[in-house]
Amino acid sequence: MRIGMFINYFTPSKGGMETSVINLSNGLRAAGHEVFIFAPDYPDWEEKEENIFRYKSFSFTYDDYLYVIPVPMVSKMEDTVRSLNLDVIHSHQPFSLGWEATKFSRKLDIPIVLTYHIKYEDYSHYVFLIPKKISQKIIRWIVNHNCRKCDALIAPSGAIKKLLFEQGIKKSVHIIPSGINIDQFAKDAGTRDSIRNKYDIKENEVFLITASRVVPEKNIDFLVRAFAIIRNTRKDVRLMIVGEGSFRDELDVLVKELELEDSVIFTGLLDKEGMIAHYQASDIFVFASLTETQGLVAVEAMAAGLPVVAVKASGIEDMIKSGQDGILTDNVEDNFATNTIKLIEDGALRKKMSASARVNAREFCIAPWVDKVVGLYNEIIQKKKNE
Q1: Straight-line distance from the first to the last Cα atom of the chain, in angstroms, rounded to the nearest whole number
Q2: Residue 110 is inside which H or E element, if any?
Q3: CATH of domain 182-363
């Protein structure tokens, strides 16, 4: 099968959506399919792989974060898409290159599926100069309009399928959680001691870790305030925040206000090997984002053997079996702190949940995920032939 993927962010960007597309593409190729990726170009980026087609883009930096916006009308990709004789198009966003994907689908009569990776309305604060309520309505209209042009939609979780239904998108929505390379995270990197020594963390100290873009919607300030409550009870606990983004300065101020400079560690971005090593050096994964469609970082942490304490929210609640491989809490700092302290103080429970986390993470292996996606591709291809 020949598959065209369209995505607005890709390497060298390192977000969850980009990781998901890379994992899916690799899994499809391993199963014998051909994958062609259409993505924006990045300044000074040298392409290292074949079958990646870059749209000309303009870029800008805002709060130390590089944004790229593809310009389809300049790139003129139609001849390229036509020459590839694609069997199916897989769009990963309803904006920009998502419009390109639906345009080519209709013009070339190619079936198309869209994965709904992001709760787009939760990002309305990035639309400048427009009041939030208005920008949310605009975003909802654009997203719904694009979704209705697709032959099928993939929702990474049951909560997202419910959200789509509530927005009036009810045709052919399939729940297919994204997968990760479980073995990559489960294999002992042998670096636990060296990572803990690097940050001067004693073996009897409990090491909490979170990973995400450092932006307001990830709710990391909630984690810092909850951690301050934990530190009032337990001084043998440290918190590591992995990632970078526009909210870092605000978090630095908050950490100083709460007098946590000696117990909160910011690492910035880590590559995959570094991320695995830091998971395996930690004891508990903590997460407070309210905007996830799935929360694959939690699955990565589970694969590395970490129990998870997370705020119960759409997406993440489908990943965690509360009481078995982690604990889901209220969006209340005291409640989050209390449940985290419970896991900190009960080493036997932590060990039991760690074992369950490793087992349950295997539900998100790449191979079965790819099988389900290919099954959906075949379904919409056949449906198109029968029309």
Answers
A1: 20
A2: none
A3: 3.40.50.2000
> With a cut of 50, which residues of the chain have pLDDT below it?
none
pLDDT in tens, 184-242: 999 998 999 999 999 999 989 999 999 998 988 899 999 999 999 999 999 999 999 99
Please, what CATH class does the domain formed by 2-179+365-386 belong to? alpha beta
Residue 58 confidence (pLDDT):
87
C-alpha–C-alpha distance, residues 385 and 363, integer Å: 33
The per-residue b/e assignment along 95-131, b for 16 or more CB within 10 angstroms, e otherwise, is ebbbbbbbebbeeeebbbbbbbbbbbbeebeeeeeee
- Torsions phi, psi of 8, nearest 5? -85, -15
Residue limits of CATH 3.40.50.2000 in the chain: 2-179+365-386, 182-363
Side by side, the strands of the sheet bearing 152-155 are 52-55, 34-40, 2-6, 88-91, 112-115, 152-155, 173-175
